[in-house]
Amino acid sequence: MLEILSFAACVLLSLSFCYVAVAIMGVLRFGFKLKTSPKSPGLTPVTMLKPLCGMEPGLADNLRTFCNQDYKNFQIVLGVRDRDDPAIPVINGIIEEFPALDISLVINDR
Q1: Lower Cβ count inside 10 Å, N or C end of the chain?
Q2: Rounded to whole angstroms, how far apart are CA atoms 15 and 102?
Q3: Contact of 82 with 105, CB cutoff 8 Å
Q4: CA 74 to chain centre
């Protein structure tokens, strides 16, 4: 009986070593080949849509955070429903503050 248990333990131990060896070979063969994405000539353009309605505390600072990001190729579209919306002067101030950025104001009552 002891011989059978010893034999079974040796078989299980051998299989464990084989598994570890196969796992190490897999890591060495495939683990270090990290896939890299092909280099693109530029970042994908992005348009951010920001609907606004009236004044809110910190509106100018909140809109500046859109303008002060690291992403290089983006457009900002700020929309209001009413020509008399109190946010419009703030929006125009942001547009003047960041003339190099593509910022648009859309007024649409629909």
Answers
A1: C
A2: 64
A3: no
A4: 14
